[in-house]
Amino acid sequence: MFVNYDADGVTVQLLAVQSTDGEPHVALNTCQSCNPSPKAFFEQDADTLTCNNCGLEFSVDTVGAVGASACNPAPVQGLVETDDAFIVPVAILEAYAPFFEQWQGPTK
What is the DSSP string of 33-90? Predict the structure, then answer.
């Protein structure tokens, strides 16, 4: 699932997935290594994500993991997990806008 936030005309996109053990994971839908490439975003096929820029594939289990390989969705600093939601403060989303200025990922 993708969640978009409009930061003064720049789309900041979060990627939310369920890992193979059923746990939810949230990260920015941009590659830590390939950003600022316009194609530094991910597509999901079952339990696999693929970077549209470099083609690297990896498991949904690593989404949002701190210390995961560099070609991985960037973790969201300041992410708060409750029993039924993930909360990202607006100031944090605004701070990530520069990572998405060249980004051309799907917004629907």
Answer: TTTTSTT--EEEETTEEEETTT--EEEGGGTT-TT--SSSBPP-TT-EE-SS-EE--H
